[in-house]
Amino acid sequence: MAIETTTHQLPYLGYGLGLRAEHYESLLDEPGNVEWLEIVSENYMIPGGRPLVWLEKFRERFPLVMHGVSMSIGSTDSLDDGYLARLSALARRVEPAWISDHLCWTGVQGINLHDLMPLPYTEEALAHVVDRVRRVQDVLGRRILLENVSSYISFADAQLTEWEFLAAVAERADCLILLDINNIHVSAHNHGFSALDYLDGIPASRVQQFHLAGHEHSGQLLIDTHDAPIIDDVWHLYVEAVRRYGRVSTMIERDDHMPPLAELLTELDYARALATPLMRVAA
Amino acid sequence: MSHLQALQQHMLQAVLADKLPQPRELDNDRRADAARRLAIYRNGYRVRLRDALATEFPGLGTLVGRRFSTLLDSYVEAHPSGHYNIRWHGAGVAAFLEYGLPWRNKPELAEMARLDWAISTSFDAPDEPVLAAADLADVPADAWANLRLSPQSHLQIISTHHNIEAFRRAADRNVKRPRLRRYDKARHLLVWRKSLTVHYRSIEVDEVSALTGAIHGEPFSALCERLCEHHGPAEALPLTASLLHQWLASGLISCRLLN
């Protein structure tokens, strides 16, 4: 596949999916319109066995990117050197187009909560994260992407909005942004801010990738579950994002209630159909 | 301690605490109060760990039945997770069941957990090229006595007083739960991976002895001596040859010959 370069000097990959074991065989047999795949890094940071054999098959067929859930970039614990060494080793094996993780913390005091805990959007937290992103990028020898998380709590002493915080991290640490459109929708609903204000506050030059996903309702709140089709409100927000940022590599995340691959391919076609006319206008 | 550090530690405690606290740092609004919001993270932590452990311990789930969730919850409450990979929180389950009340009163639980965990860790253990019978064809006759075999490093031997493998098999095949049987003497199960598939089978005490000797780097002659203790000298040599043939066919022996 011809890879086109964007202003970020990273390739534009088109439309992809998160690689999940349930679709290993069908993705190799009938990949349909899938142009690239995103792997969950931790699933392949292992010594050997079947997952690495599958990984090699996909590496031969698709451009891959690595997406982690455990870097804990915002934690006040020390950076996990062992984790970063394994991540680096996997990157040497996979040769991904890029590596991403989340703008959050996942544990402290040596205890892992296995969740994407939001940070307080303060100057102190900003300086802390910027320093750690720079150190991680030095270890990996490349710029990373950070993803906005869905959140259900916010902190009373916040000095910045979430989008101001994300934009400032990207600018000061010179990293890129993985914008999860569903997460913006979920957090906007849960905290009562405008999703469009969020999009307006993110510098287009930093946006390298979009995530699209589904969520569920829990009382008055929305929960980011990746277990359902993408809803219309998130599609509308995706259109707004494409209008603002232009052509950005886009993929669908599905982690639970896994449908047949064909269903995800249909969603991917829909994303392409929504975005392509807007890109023509922008061009 | 920085403000951020204190806040993260407080949030950690709020997620792990038995009772739902009312953290002052969090915003409330008309949509949901802080406690309701925090509960999402508290529940998520427990559900994620419970689900991950249930995936790693299917035999234990079949053996325990309806109390499996209670067992997993008690483990998670007693042992916060320390590894970045959620699956690795399973490393402490067998020890918890062996020493923690009330579970230690049922020793079959710890045995079952050990078998499940051995299968799980064999799944993605390091790949090692295996030794084939043809690789030994050129070994001179006078070199056999000092030949050292190298079993695959992920290979595990589990001792049990119960028919735990029947529960694992029932879980894997999604068939009816078997009846628990207790053995008079300890029996043994061998867990290993051949190519990409994990296997387990019963292993008799003489084979346990010979395989343990090989794991410890003992030469072929010492493995014969170990079998002599069980069968006498006349039968030991052919039995050793038979075991070697079986080990090679099963992919138990690594290409790493020690001499």
Ordered list of secondary-structure elements with their pairings:
The complex is a heterodimer of chains A (283) and B (259).
Chain A: E1 4-5, E2 11-12, E3 15-18, H1 24-29, E4 36-40, H2 41-44, H3 50-61, E5 64-67, H4 81-94, E6 99-102, E7 105-108, E8 111-117, H5 123-140, E9 145-147, H6 162-173, E10 176-180, H7 181-191, H8 195-201, E11 207-212, E12 216-218, E13 221-223, H9 232-245, E14 249-252, H10 261-282
Parallel strand pairs in A: 3-4, 3-14, 4-5, 5-6, 6-9, 9-10, 10-11, 11-14
Antiparallel strand pairs in A: 1-2, 7-8, 12-13
Helix pairs in contact in A: 5-6, 6-8, 8-9, 9-10
Chain B: H1 3-16, H2 34-56, H3 58-64, H4 68-78, H5 93-99, H6 107-123, E1 156-162, H7 164-173, E2 182-194, E3 197-203, H8 205-215, H9 220-231, H10 233-249
Antiparallel strand pairs in B: 1-2, 2-3
| Quantity of strands of chain B, as a count | 3
CATH architecture of the largest domain in chain B: Alpha-Beta Complex
Number of domains of chain B: 2
What helical percentage do the residues of chain A reach? 40-55%
Identify the overall geometry of chain A: globular
Subunit organisation of the chains: heterodimer
The helix-strand sequence of chain A is: EEEHEHHEHEEEHEHEHHEEEHEH
Q: How many structurally independent domains of chain A?
A: 1
Unreliable stretches covering 5 or more consecutive residues of chain B: none
Q: Radius of gyration of chain A over alpha carbons?
A: 18 Å
How many DSSP-defined strands of chain A? 14
Question: Helix count of chain B?
Answer: 10
Which class do the helix and strand fractions of chain B yield? mainly alpha
- Kindly provide the name of the CATH class of the largest domain in chain B: Alpha Beta
Low-confidence stretches of chain A: 1-7
Strand order of the largest sheet of chain A: 3-4-5-6-9-10-11-14
Structural commentary:
The complex is a heterodimer of chains A (283) and B (259). Chain A has helices spanning 24-29, 41-44, 50-61, 81-94, 123-140, 162-173, 181-191, 195-201, 232-245, 261-282, and strands at residues 4-5, 11-12, 15-18, 36-40, 64-67, 99-102, 105-108, 111-117, 145-147, 176-180, 207-212, 216-218, 221-223, 249-252. Chain A is α/β, with parallel strands linked by helices and 283 residues long. Chain A has a single domain, classed as Divalent-metal-dependent TIM barrel enzymes (TIM Barrel), CATH 3.20.20. Residues 1-7 of chain A have low confidence and may be disordered. By secondary structure, chain B is mostly helical. Chain B folds into two domains: 33-124; 125-259, Outer Surface Protein A, domain 3 (Alpha-Beta Complex), CATH 3.90.930.50. Helix content of chain B is 50%, strand content 10%. Chain B contains ten helices and three strands. Chain B has a three-stranded antiparallel β-sheet with strand order 1-2-3.
